[in-house]
Amino acid sequence: MGGNCIGRAFRVTTFGESHGPAMGAVVEGCPPGIELSAADFVAAMERRRSKERSSDTSRRETDEVEIVSGVFEGLTTGAPIMLMIANQDTDSRAYEILRKLFRPGHGDYTFFKKYQHVDFRGGGRYSARETAARVAAGVVAGKILDPIGVKVKAYTLEIGGVRAMQFKWDTLEQSPFYCPDPRASNRIQQVLKDAAARGDSVGGVAEVIVTGCPPGLGEPVFDKLDADLAKAIFSIGTVKGVEIGAGFGAARLKGSENNDPITPEGFKSNHAGGILAGISNGDRIIARVALKPIPSIRMEQETIDREGRPARIRLSGRHDICPLPRALAVIEAMVKIVLADHYLRQMTNLSAAGGRFVERVR
Predict the structure, then answer these.
(1) At 310, which CATH number?
(2) Is the overall model pTM greater than 0.90, yes or no?
(3) What is the domain count for the chain?
(4) What does the pLDDT average to over 237-258?
(5) What distance lies between CA 118 and its chain's CA centroid?
(6) Range of the domain at 147
(7) Euclidean distance between CA atoms 213 and 335, whole angstroms
(8) Which of these, 110, 132, 37, 117, lies nearest to 327 by C-alpha position?
């Protein structure tokens, strides 16, 4: 199975299956001498973990990260860093039905067509459980970005058609859905309860903002920063759309409206979303992410078996009602991984040329 790695200068490989012994990641390219311990992973892994929200699966994993290699006496050595996350709360009984039937909207059908033999327990390799390894790797990426002042924050913009209309950032942490609109957060709670009662699921929209990113990151023409960010975010299983800056809204603007005027103090607007010609411009990087409803639902659905015969399927088991807010930690991790990779690539470029970063525009 290919496609398990991302990055060049900062390279992440994930491994493991949903109901296997463990998930994990191997991180290559992390510079030596960076402080790293198991405690550094707790906050990020906690954000991704299921809780007592009406939207979350009842599967409860501790998600403790074990550093197997690449760290000695609390410092990275420059060697590959292997991170292990044990699977401790697995129960495969509800997935026996998937020995023969495909879940509509899930990867069962396509993985079977591609590989002919798949681990159906909880989705195996294509389960959302795989993202735990990404979050762990994102912590290492963050260790590279923190000293240069790069911060990445994702939040819930919309769930089940309920969209944040006001942004009270001081109450963000108080919302169980990490939504900046308290009224919208309350309405989301009811939307999720209603979906759960029907045995259905809902999708949502996240927004991620990067501050402190220096200008100059990105490798045109095929490794543009926005292209790599979109690919990384799209690699998250539930993602169906990514837009940067004005995104699709730019198609409805005139050039005079969409262009961001430049002054000695910085950009007057940010329709570009912090990226021009595939290179960061020093302004805030802003992206929105559309996440589809969780495909594993309790409502009876039409499907086929592995021989192509018509069938009906009704699922049990433990599943999220909505990918948000747990996916926020995953989105942040993928953005950090891409930024760390491009930062290290730019450092190599400038070192070879004897140059340095120019000051940020804003």
Answers:
(1) 3.60.150.10
(2) yes
(3) 1
(4) 98
(5) 24
(6) 5-353
(7) 12
(8) 132
